[in-house]
Design goal:
binds 1,3-dihydroxyacetonephosphate; TIM Barrel; two-stranded antiparallel sheet; 8-stranded parallel beta barrel; alpha/beta; 287 residues; 17% strand; single chain
Length: 287
């Protein structure tokens, strides 16, 4: 069922677990994430970056594929189709195309402009029952060409954005996209506690889910994180499994070149990673 992310995240916040956002890149990714969510009776959020949106052909293609797959594969767990780090124009486009959730990332604007633009996206999205994620304090690292320098969000600014009626808030707490460097200082839990105090029941979002140690993930959930984004880790396991298949020469044996065979190990690797994350986040059997 394609739904807004609001209800699943409200339940997660109350139940002290987190729903995973898994970014998708193509049909195999989408199918792997949806089937794993169904097998584990877990709500799930499919994340689409603007770059991945373009890669897959466009937002209409993605809406068609996801809705079709939910129907054909008999997926009954709640699924949100969410724009990841949307620009102002990108957010408006997915609202038109039929996404059920949208992130408007105005963190690179001065706070007043972030507030103005977020407010406008909230009004457009809510008119159609679409949930909205906003961001304060940029997430570090690079994702699809979008580079953030990794700030810790100002809790007062978080409160200002929370007051706009957003459904979830991504607040930078030292998290970064991609792999964490050796000398990473870890998550800023004191900032997270402060943000949670000021924003109350609003579900908080932890970006950069790849490579955060398990204890830190659990602690962040206990401090109000209800949505955790994972992208790079699925890409890494997919690539490793595909590499192994080819290095073992399996593509050269029989009909091993058939894409359905060639991409199968990567598909299974994504499924395994998504299952492990759902278990860690506590969303299994919460559909
Ligand atoms: P990772 O690529 O580090 O898992 O981050 C994903 C993310 O935050 C998507 O917005």
């Amino acid at each position: 069922m394609l739904v807004s992310a609001k209800e699943m995240l409200t339940k997660a916040k109350e139940g002290k677990y987190a729903v995973g956002q898994f970014n998708i890149n193509n049909l195999e990714w989408t199918k792997a994430v949806l089937i794993t969510a169904q097998e584990n009776n877990s709500p799930v959020i499919l994340g689409v970056s603007e770059g991945a949106g373009k890669y897959m052909g466009g937002y209409d293609t993605i809406v068609g594929m996801v809705k079709g797959m939910i129907k054909d594969l008999k997926i009954t767990v709640p699924v949100a189709l969410h724009l990841d780090h949307g620009s102002y124009d990108g957010a408006k486009k997915v609202i038109e195309a039929g996404f059920s959730s949208v992130m408007f990332d105005g963190s690179h604007y001065p706070i007043d402009e972030n507030i103005e633009k977020t407010k406008e996206i909230v009004s457009l999205a809510h008119a159609k029952g679409i949930s909205v994620e906003a961001e304060v304090g940029s997430i570090g690292g690079e994702e699809d060409g979008v580079v953030g320098k990794g700030e810790v969000a100002d809790p007062k600014e978080c409160k200002l954005i929370a007051n706009l009626g957003v459904d979830m808030l991504a607040a930078g707490i030292g998290n970064i996209h991609g792999k964490y460097p050796e000398n990473w200082a870890g998550l800023a839990f004191d900032a997270l506690e402060e943000i949670q105090k000021l924003t109350g029941t609003l579900p908080l979002v932890l970006h950069g889910g790849t490579g955060i140690p398990e204890e830190m993930v659990k602690k962040s959930i206990s401090l109000g994180v209800s949505k955790i984004n994972v992208n790079t880790e699925c890409q890494v396991v997919f690539a490793a499994a595909t590499r192994k298949y080819i290095e073992e020469g399996k593509d050269l044996k029989g009909k091993g070149f058939d894409p359905r065979k060639l991409l199968a190990p990567g598909f299974e690797a994504i499924k395994q990673t998504v299952k492990e994350k759902m278990e860690l986040f506590g969303s299994v059997n919460k559909a």
